[in-house]
Specification:
Order of helices and strands: HHEEEHEHEHHEHEEHHEEEHEHHHH
Largest sheet: 7 strands, mixed
Distance between the termini: 33 Å
CATH superfamily of the largest domain: NAD(P)-binding Rossmann-like Domain
Shape: globular
CATH topology of the largest domain: Rossmann fold
Oligomer: single chain
Radius of gyration: 20 Å
Number of helices: 14
Structural class: alpha/beta
CATH class of the largest domain: Alpha Beta
Length: 409
């Protein structure tokens, strides 16, 4: 399974079904710029190691390229090509004035000391310096990156507005930590309302207990949804009674290293299951919030959820998407469901550019309104044109991208 091949397949299929101009689809199947570099870094023991790093700039018709930088052993050119295209679509769906970009370094940052990580990041920032900028390309945190890493990049570049996802003290925005998870639940609530389904009493399983999954689970619980299953990279925990105090689990996991150990620490009675079992539990809502391609043609038939909330990027392959649609499972697509993060990244960029500081209440209120507006726009196209939510989201995005096309393109 190749993420870029999946991304191309999805775009082509939706282009045909939604009767979108093939020339426009062809433009979106290509990238504006590819930055691929090798970073030789002197390690603490004096040895020099070389790391492969990438930045793909997909399309900037609507504004500066925008998208995260991830540090993960599986980072590859094809992965960031797919992710950067999805960012172009996502930014248009949520209607922020950005294009799409993505990048990263093929490294497991947990194997590096903090000084090694800083040297690696600053070397990458120096390589990117001519390609990024507040009006050119605005990176952000992604898998295994954070506000401190963004601060190092901003420091090398000399302008805090060059990145988002910074710590509050360094010019970051209130509400950014919660944004992607909360935004996904705001989208879920909007879709449930359109289906005349009340959230209270519904059950949910969340795959992935990082930042996105934890805040999504927390807001689900606040809205009366019973979160019965959670998974990290080691196990799934399941309780028919649901897990009420998500943040206590976060704290205990941070201390003990895993969800399985966390429930023991908190004396919570529950079943400890295999990591992939989270996908097969009978629930109303399944929220994949880990890495891409979690649901494939090999496991799609065993999905028992009625709604899939795609909090990760590309968690469902095109083949699995077809199987799930045949099973009448509603999929709230990633380009809509996880766009809350980039919406608040835009708020941060805007605040930096205008020397403003918004409160968390202001930020989350703006986010909720923006997510609900995007859901309404996608639902309108879905209902008018008999398209799935994914197809409708892409059709909406491509329409907005086309409207921003420069005259010389």
């Amino acid at each position: 399974m190749n993420p870029w091949e999946n991304a191309q397949q999805t775009l082509k299929q939706i282009g045909e079904k939604a009767k979108i101009d093939p020339n426009l689809i062809n433009v979106l199947l290509n990238h504006d710029h590819k930055i691929e570099v090798e970073l030789p870094i002197v390690m603490d023991d004096g040895e020099t190691k070389t790391f492969n790093a990438y930045r793909m700039q997909h399309n900037n018709w609507r504004g500066p390229y925008k998208g995260g930088l991830r540090y993960h052993p599986q980072v590859s050119l094809d992965e960031v090509k797919a992710l950067s295209m999805w960012m172009t679509i996502k930014n248009a769906v949520i209607n922020v004035p950005f294009g799409g970009g993505k990048g990263g370094i093929a490294v497991n940052p947990k194997t590096l000391s903090k000084p090694e990580l800083e040297r690696l990041t600053r070397a990458f920032a120096r390589e990117l310096a001519e390609y990024i900028g507040p009006d050119k390309d605005v990176p952000a945190p992604d898998v295994n990156t954070n506000g401190e890493i963004m601060k190092w990049i901003a420091d090398e570049f000399g302008d805090k507005a060059v990145v988002t996802g910074k710590a509050i003290a360094d010019g970051g925005s209130e509400g950014r930590t919660e944004a992607t998870g909360y935004g996904g639940v705001y989208a879920l609530l909007g879709v449930l309302e359109s289906m005349n389904i009340k959230p209270a009493g519904l059950t949910a399983a969340v795959q992935g207990f990082g930042n996105v999954g934890t805040y999504a689970a927390e807001l689900m619980v606040k809205n009366g949804i019973k979160v019965v299953a959670l998974s990290d990279s080691k196990n799934t925990i399941y309780s028919n009674d649901g897990f009420d105090n998500i943040m206590a689990l976060v704290e205990a996991k941070s201390k003990t290293g895993s969800l399985a150990n966390a429930v023991k620490e908190l004396n919570i009675e529950c079943d400890i299951m295999a990591v992939d079992d989270v996908l097969n539990i009978e629930v109303d809502i399944l929220a994949p919030a880990a890495l891409e391609m979690a649901i494939t043609k090999d496991n799609a038939e065993s999905i028992k959820a009625k709604i899939i909330l795609e909090l990760a990027n590309g968690p469902v392959t095109p083949e699995a998407d077809s199987i799930l649609n045949d099973k009448n499972i509603t999929i709230i697509p990633d380009v809509l469901a996880n766009s809350g993060g980039v919406a608040v990244s835009y708020y941060e960029w805007y605040q930096n550019r205008h020397n403003e500081n918004w409160t968390k209440i202001q930020v989350l209120e703006k986010l909720e309104n923006q997510m609900k507006a995007a859901v309404a726009d996608v639902l309108a196209i879905s209902n008018e044109s008999n398209l799935t939510l994914r197809e409708a989201a892409y059709a909406l995005a491509i329409k907005r991208i086309a409207e921003a096309k420069p005259e010389n393109n």
